[in-house]
What we know:
single chain; 140 residues; alpha+beta; Alpha-Beta Plaits; 4-stranded antiparallel sheet; 39% helix; binds ribavirin triphosphate; binds magnesium ion; EC 2.7.4.6; NDK-like_dom; Nucleoside_diP_kinase
Amino acid sequence: MAIERTLSIIKPDGVKNNHVGEIIARFEKAGLKPVAIRRQQLSQAEAEGFYAVHKARPFFKDLVSFMISGPVVLMALEGENAVQKNRDLMGATDPKKADKGTIRADFAQSIDANTVHGSDSLENAKNEVAYFFRETEIHG
Ligand code: RTP
Ligand code: MG
C-alpha cells in the first residue's frame, strides 16, 4: 500500500478539552506519524481560505467562527493509506452517528465542535498540507 500524507487539524474543542495528547497517541498507534506539527490561532482569512469549498453552504459562517474560537493543532500525518486511515479513526462528521471508539464518538460534542478535521481525498490532502506547511517544515 502507498505511503501517503494527509492533513489533520485538532479543532478548538479538542485543544480546549486537553485531548491533544490522546488524539496524537491514537494516530501513532495506528501507524500515522506526525511529520509536521504546529499549534496556532487561525485568522478569519486563513479559516475562510481553508474551507473555501464550503463557502456556499449554510454552515460556512458557523464553521469559520468555530475554527477561530481558539487555538488549533495542525499536523501532517504520514503512513500507509493515511487519508482513509485518518478518516476511519475520526468517525462520522456528526458525533451522534460516529462509530464507537472513534475520535468523534469519544470526544466530540456536536457537528460543529467535532474535534478533528481530516482531508477527504489524496488530492485534497496534498493541497491542505501545502496550505499550512512548507516542504522544509515536514520531516518524515
Ligand atoms: P472535516 O472537513 O472537518 O474533516 O469534516 P467532514 O469532512 O466530516 O465534513 P465536511 O462535510 O467537510 O464539513 C466540514 C465541517 O463543517 C461542519 N458541518 N456542519 N451543520 C451541518 O450540517 C454541518 N455539516 C458540516 C462540520 O464541523 C464539518 O466537520
Ligand atoms: Mg471535509
